[in-house]
């Protein structure tokens, strides 16, 4: 006998998230390994230097999590040179109980000089800090612009300094620790931040270093005399705090943040200190090995806190799943697609986003475009197009925090309508099986290089997202991202003219 439940189940059968191949995961892990490899780090250890990730680890509150962004930036972009993590490590962490964006030069690669992708990453980190009202902490040691690429850096490069001034004017504290040599463009970061700290006999700030001075003037001068901590703390005034060593500099920075009279992250900071989040099942773990597939419903069930998911319009526009839930205690909406977005699905999403905006509830978007195209008439296609235009208009103007996760294919208009990069989600992460493409390869000419360009590592290297994550880390990363995006009050949404 016919039941509404049977109808629903038969529709669901069409909507399965594609299997992650173990090749995707292996490729991703291999690349991560390459970026983490600090062979050659011994040279710096001998000089009594902390490696970049050690600097970050010592800065953040003990036991707290660090949400690292765009780990694979720059992968494969510079020929034989692997510019690890794009030459700049960025991420959100808790320092003295306040949420901070941390930006740390990878000084062990090409003297920490700034490559075009590193600059792009710097600007993205500042954009997140601005959007989420985070304190900025710069851990600097850099030879300035990467000289072979200076033509690609010069014009955009100034934006970094512009942002520092504008964010300060908006009341966002910014602090720099000068751990090593900061030349040329890198010298402007400590000089423009509200407060900076210099480490004695290790930190240097100058526009041109001793070799350049000698070449230009013939004068032989030591780095210490030219721009050491003593010069800048006692004579020039460029620096505000004199640190005896690395640990002392970190302690001073933590005190500055503590005394900054900046809003503590109160309950949201707790999410960062929680060691891990409970899973409702082990499906996501299995996915890492490419052994399972799951539907959008199963995925949401795994992500949502126990029994918290309440589905919106369950039987209408079933190619799209939407509903409210709690995710690690955070009340949020979820919008997930399975395949081609229908007119009904788009109408449902539009209505759901308006409710979230009214109630000021953040939204998690899950993209999975599975190319199971249904046959549609021209008129149906027309109606679908109109509904998607309305959805994009409402999405663009909804002021609630948004976090996007791409787990499968993301192409065509679905990329935009489900809050792709161009619709400015606060964060966008992908799974290793994610694929970006302007149109669906199954229905167009398939070229070899298109395959390569659709790979998640390829996309992440170019900063089309904020990082590739393993499925098992999904809940944790989403919770941290939502915590961050909720660091500022949610404004009222003002919607645009909606066309008929
Ligand atoms: N652009 C491109 N590469 C740079 C660079 C820059 N601005 N600064 C340093 N490097 C590279 C070096 O060529 C070297 O590359 P290699 O590993 O392939 O040999 C590597 O970084 C390490 O440099 P090195 O001088 O050996 O290390 P160091 O620790 O003794 O000194 C610096 C590091 C940054 C202090 C020093 O290299 C320096 O002063 N660089 C010049 C900075 C400059 O003039 N910048 C102007 C930018 S507009």
Q: What key attributes describe this structure?
A:
500 residues; alpha/beta; 2-enoyl-CoA Hydratase, Chain A, domain 1; 6-stranded mixed sheet; 16 strands; binds coenzyme A
General description of the model:
- The chain is of the alpha/beta class.
- It folds into 2 domains: 38-258, 2-enoyl-CoA Hydratase, Chain A, domain 1, CATH 3.90.226.10; 274-485, 2-enoyl-CoA Hydratase, Chain A, domain 1 (Alpha-Beta Complex), CATH 3.90.226.10.
- The chain contains 20 helices and 16 strands.
- The strands form 3 sheets. Strands 1, 2, 3, 4, 5, 6, 7 and 8 form an 8-stranded mixed β-sheet that branches. The chain has a 6-stranded mixed β-sheet with strand order 9-10-11-12-13-15, with helices on both faces.
- Strand 11 (330-337), helix 15 and strand 12 form a beta-alpha-beta unit.
- Helix 5 (116-132) runs parallel beside helix 6 and helix 6 runs parallel beside helix 7.
- It is elongated, with a radius of gyration of 24 Å.
- 47% of the residues are buried.
- The model is unreliable at 10-16 (pLDDT under 50).
